[in-house]
């Protein structure tokens, strides 16, 4: 009376109920786990009932006249992959989490495919119909996943190449590859009569080529300037003196500041530093800056030379008895360019021995005082 | 009259009476229909006619609907002949509302631009919201007698007839500043500075509250704008610029100062307060409070509400005296601050005893992992009644 499927799910129900009882008995604060286990029991109970009710969905039951099923079965690689996945899971538990997760993915994928395939093969005696049944179940899963993986491999490989070659070579590669894709696409579109195998061959060969160069490039490492930048952690090491900005992104200076919402605009013109506060139509030498709150100012260079704005933000103790000045600054700003500078001053002006200021390194006698209330 | 008709009449007259009575609220300090400043009047000048137009349109539509319901109700008559479409009517009914909306739109835009002008600013106040109170700092503006920055909380004081520009921002989440009698609302957004014009015609205390949901105690995030005559404002400024004076030796207040240095100064600044070694005591709310700030208490007793303007520092009688005062006398009464006899001991003590019990604030010391060990609001410091006596005595000196 019990079908094989229902036996499995009934077993699962009983097992999870038993574990649940044990869990509640043995674990303090067992609510979450008990709820999970009970949910499993409930779900498998429902499925067990369903499979009892429809006799495991065995369409073939009334179809005993169908020819022996031996020749119907297609050769399947899923058991093999499932085994590999299982081994991966076990091996991953003792070696590396990555192995575990790859194994788990293989196991899940193989399990799903295997399940659906054997179900579809038992559906009827018509092989073609069975295959279409399998396709209807699995294609909505397979296509997006394979497409994502395929695209991901190509994108990652290509980006590894771009990170490894010099900036100029990168531009050339981009142009060449882009033109090649456009060219191939155009040919395929204009000549629909091209042999399918040829088209597929070209696509596969290019994909393999990209992936191979990606692997080669990745094992080759980043290009020199990126390696250096990574080592120097350059976003936290700004140069705030008169020196050139070595690590700043020069293209950012003209754009980002436009969109920010500055509390004041600082302008350098004819060797003079002036400030204008938001909402006040007046030029000033003192700005009020919120205490203990990030805020943004804009530095606008209208002088005849490159200049940088440096903010003196008090001192901080780095070790017992050793204090260090806290500075923040823009990069060297080109003529007629501007950049936003966001910072925070935690303590009011009265807590600082020297006033907080904004200055241009190398320009004597010009400074804007930052009042922090 | 049939029962149905009687029911309808009763229902309609009940509705009418309710809405009539509702419009007669007497003690409604946050009434948007009573502008007390030029910006609020600009808004009022728009909303009155728009409301009238909308009202007329609404009444017409309502009457037509009622007429149709009664006239064409089902009396068992035969289905009348059906027509489809009436181009003249349809085009007319599209153009008419479009014209009305266009008219309203023109005036709305004018109002929006009028309200966002900053060129005529006469005074600037920086307004910073945080969970769940407002901080105000006044940049130095010598022409107004403000020779050094002033910092206060809860109640913002402005001179009458002066175009004040608020620069609003926030230290944590989005809040919104709204004094209905003086202008519309404007969001205070972290990382951004928004401007809002404000001015008051007459001296008075104008109430408002945060109008952007900002967490647990959003409802307890209130504020007031206090408008004073120019002379009274100058007196207020002079008082705010002064440091707090240390209480005389051998007084309860002096002992309170010691408790304050011990327990409170890590969050609260009192300008002029010195540590035992004579160096100035600098508060570090940035290290102890999630938003990075706690109210400056130098002139606590110069304001008459506390903790997000949600509780009174004045007892009932004194409060009625100040808040109910005429515009001629309110300034002097406000400037008198909170005297010993007027102090609302009950609520202040309750606050010191267990602030989070009064105002929900996530200030449970065992639950600070999500805020890096910082408090959101003022925690329960477990003070003894003795310490509270001393602290109240000390706080009373912070005029
Ligand atoms: Cu708020």
Brief description of this entry?
The complex is a heterodimer of chains A (373) and B (399). Chain A contains nine helices and ten strands. With 373 residues, chain A is an alpha+beta fold.
Note the beta-strand portion of chain B.
5-15%
Count of individual beta strands of chain B: 12
The CATH superfamily name of one domain in chain A is Cupredoxins -  blue copper proteins
Ligand types: copper (II) ion
What is the CATH domain class of one domain in chain A? Mainly Beta
Strand content of chain A: 15-25%
Overall average residue pLDDT of chain A: 84
Which fold does the CATH topology of one domain in chain B refer to?
Answer: Cytochrome Bc1 Complex, Chain D, domain 2
- Biggest sheet, spatial arrangement of strands of chain B: 3-2-1-5-8
Q: How far apart lie the N and C ends of chain B?
A: 69 Å
Please count the helical segments of chain A. Answer: 9
* Percent range of helical residues of chain B: 25-40%
Strand order across the largest sheet of chain A: 3-2-1-5-8
Shape of chain B: elongated
Structural class of chain A: alpha+beta
What is the share of helical residues of chain A?
40-55%
